[in-house]
Sequence to fold (370 residues):
Amino acid sequence: MISMPHQGSLAALAGWLTLSLVCLSLPAQAVADPGVDAVTADAEASADSVADPNSIQSVYDCSALTALSPPESPGDWFERSVWASHCYQYQARAVRIVDEEVVTLSVARDIQQGVERDRLHFLDGPSRSLLREGGAFRFELGDSQGAAPASPQALVEHLSRFYRLRFDGEERIANRHAIRLELLPLDAMRYGYRIWLDRETAIPLKRTLIDERGQVLDTFQLVAMTPPERYDGKVELRRPPSSARLDWRAGWLPRGFVAQPLMAMASDSDGPRRHKLYSDGLSTISLFVEPVAGSRVLRPGVHRLGASHAAVRRVQREGQLLQVVAVGELPPSVLVKVAETLELAEGQPQGVSDGARPEAASNVHQEASS
Fold:
């Protein structure tokens, strides 16, 4: 059952999600902290500064693209799209469509001295912008702070365990010839995707989110873009700043979801809003735990915002009432179970049996029984 938030809570929830969900739809899969409008997602050094060699996790040598064989299989195309998301510069206009709401944006992507920089500006409603420097969200399979981003090949291998990748035709998008891929879930724990890749460069031009009934929930599409320019050099992916150690974690996650590094950030008017991010390489779950207070209080239950859902519950801990929120573009039942199985530091899991260690990459997560 979908419950309605308290008055004002829907706006608060929208403030958490709007920018991050739009950015998740970007070809480069950016992740911004919900509630922060104009910040860098990784808070990394500016492009004109010299990177600390110890902060560099991995490097994409974009000049090597010319020597790669043309992609053939769906996995080859997806792997090439990961390269393209790091190695091309362009400017574009884009739209995001959820239900009957259409949001238009300008997108500018450039690379300076090996550092990626993305600028987004919302062209509808209040003027809002996002600047991200230092690279897109990188899926990590490791469970240590020093874990490097998964290579494009490793990412495809991981996804193939939970999605079936297949060709789904060709189409013209943004006046460019595109290959259409489908990524269909192999279980009921996640939604499917269609991705349109530019035939010439493999840059993602369009992305749709598909529910279990085959209905399109969310569309992000470039509608016009300048001719892409390949960066002829090395792009450095820097290590994200470590988050403060939190004394809680998810007690259960769908198979394939792994904890990802994410810096704790806050807006000028809020205190730190720390949360954890989990991903299977495509879908993400954000898990928030904070005291029940102020304008961000939500009624327990499931709330819908566009293509996303938020499962909300409350727990008592040492005399303090906490609000637990699990957010993602996933079936509501999955988010409910994530919220219900929160583990606290005392070792007293909330509604989950002992032995669940979902944040370790080697852990085999159990699927929901319902």
Q: What stands out?
A: The radius of gyration is 20 Å.
